[in-house]
Amino acid sequence: MSRTVFCQYEQRDAEGLDFVPYPGELGQRIFNNIGKQAWAAWLAHQTMLINENRLSPRTPEHRAFLEGELVKFLFEKDAQKPAGFTPEA
């Protein structure tokens, strides 16, 4: 049986994640308050950020940037696309 959470991103009840997807308190906050579809949307957005900004998840500064964007995207609705981003046709 799947978990149901009130997804703060989608503002509705949604299927919860199967595991804590991120370390620490932020990971627990995501697990308790974000649904699977919203997490999938974040992963797609994160991939775009990594590719467009040429980020490396191994670099501490890049990880800190991505964590800040994660909070903006999932909880603050303040995430923006990278400058110069043009979606594929």
TrEMBL record:
Pfam families in the cross-refs: Iron_traffic
Quick check: keyword Iron in the entry?
yes
Presence of keyword Hydrolase: no
The domain of life is Bacteria
Q: Which GO terms describe its molecular function?
A: iron ion binding
Q: Mind listing the UniProt keywords for this protein, alphabetically?
A: Iron
Positions the record marks as coiled coil are: none
The family line of this record is:
Belongs to the Fe(2+)-trafficking protein family.
- Entry-linked NCBIfam families: PRK05408.1
Summarizing the function annotation, the protein's role is: Could be a mediator in iron transactions between iron acquisition and iron-requiring processes, such as synthesis and/or repair of Fe-S clusters in biosynthetic enzymes. Necessary to maintain high levels of aconitase under oxidative stress.
What is the official name of this protein in its record?
Probable Fe(2+)-trafficking protein
**Origin species:** Stenotrophomonas maltophilia
